[in-house]
Amino acid sequence: MTRLNGRNRVLDQYYSCLAGFPHFRALVNIGFGLLIVIFSLMNCATHIYTGVKYREWNPGLVMASLQFIASTYGAYIITAKGISHPLIWWISSVIFSILVHAILFKFVMNKK
């Protein structure tokens, strides 16, 4: 496999997928992967929080716990190896995730 950016194997695979689409590659930033990972971390945290708060079994509790570990590792890899201006990406990702979760809680949780 040809090394496209020399950073690490995970990012090389990411860029290899986009190599056939150079016009898309210019539009995509690995920082958006951090956005998805942070959103996943917040979703896991809400499952874990509700499980602890109400002291009852939550079907997503075990999966959320495992996914939390994987997402934390993913956030580390993306931050350490893949993005420029990590603080800006982290702040914007957390703000976006909080807003989306607040909207979801408002509309979904109030229907019960």
Quick rundown:
This protein is mostly helical.
Largest sheet: none
Query: Approximately how much beta-strand content do the residues carry?
Result: under 5%
Helix/sheet category: mainly alpha
Globular, elongated, flat, extended or rod-shaped: what is the shape? globular
* Annotation, overall tally of beta strands: 0
Poorly predicted parts: 1-6
Give, in order, the helices and strands. Answer: HHHHH
Number of helices in the DSSP assignment: 5
Describe this structure in words.
73% of the residues lie in helices and 0% in strands. It is built from five helices and no strands. With 112 residues, it is mainly alpha-helical. The protein has one domain. It is globular, with a radius of gyration of 17 Å.
